[in-house]
Design goal:
There is one protein chain. With 244 residues, the protein is an alpha/beta fold. It has one domain (5-242): Rossmann fold. The mean pLDDT is 95. It has helices at 14-25, 38-51, 68-80, 103-130, 151-171, 194-202, 212-224, and strands at residues 5-8, 29-34, 56-60, 85-88, 134-138, 176-182, 233-236.
Length: 244
């Protein structure tokens, strides 16, 4: 039986690594993309290959280099000889208050959250069409409800959300394209007070944080069980977006 292949970007840690592990448990071969976290990527690959030989491989790419998109897809094809699923998970996130935002920050956040998913999807499309595959974008609830002091990030994720819909039109009927918009799942690496965390959770209907597995399971559903869903974004936020 030929195993399907999934490429997950920004996959060495956090939500990306959970997506990798979940797809791998469900019999996918996984292409693990990383930019600079080589050690974490190697450890993850080794763990998965112990479970199933030659089922995982790591691929380095810096998406600030426009040649990296086609190069990454070519490397994945050379190793696995197919591609069934592309998960656009890699992202940049940091505050850009309106009184201090810079051109460099604009370029970086737009590139990571909109430009890279677009051009990587473009490069992957021929392979995905061969397998009637799919693309999943990691969006964000702040694509719809902007985050204070993060205007550029929120705008970039709004572009990412529209990318889901436009790619679904452009790449159908061969390729399905959907998105997942996480809410309070993993706290940012930057310092955040316990009071702020509790304030955020109080705005959810479930009054608790989600887990990376909540996101990975939603992606698994979209990949394996949702053959008639395309152009949609599933919000996984504990009910935060229905609160005032």
């Amino acid at each position: 039986m030929v195993q399907k292949v999934a490429l997950i970007t920004g996959a060495s840690a956090r939500i990306g690594a959970e997506i990798v592990s979940t797809l791998h448990k469900n019999n996918y071969q996984v292409a693990i993309h990383y930019r600079s976290s080589a050690n974490q990527a190697k450890i993850l690959m080794a763990q998965l290959n112990q479970l199933r030989k030659n089922s995982a491989m790591i691929f380095q790419a810096d998406f600030s280099n426009t040649d990296s998109f086609q190069s990454l897809i070519s490397q994945v094809k050379a190793y696995f000889n197919r591609l069934d699923v592309l998960i656009n998970n890699a992202s940049s996130f940091y505050p850009t208050p309106i009184n201090s935002a810079t051109f460099d920050q604009w370029d970086d956040l737009m590139a990571a959250n909109a430009k890279a998913p677009f051009f990587l999807s473009q490069a992957a499309a021929p392979l995905l069409k061969q397998q009637q595959g799919c693309i999943i974008n990691l969006v964000d609830i702040h694509a719809f409800r902007p985050l204070k002091e993060h205007p550029i990030y929120s705008m970039a994720k709004a572009a990412n959300a529209m990318l889901v819909k436009t790619l679904a039109r452009e790449l159908g009927p061969e390729i399905r394209v959907n998105g997942v918009a996480p809410g309070a799942i993993l706290w940012p690496d930057t310092d955040i007070s316990e009071q702020t965390k509790q304030e955020i959770l109080s705005r959810t209907t479930l009054k608790r944080a989600g887990t990376a597995q909540d996101i990975a399971k939603t992606i698994l559903f979209l990949v394996n069980e949702a053959s008639y869903i395309s152009g949609q974004i599933i919000t996984v936020d504990g009910g935060r977006t229905v609160q005032q």
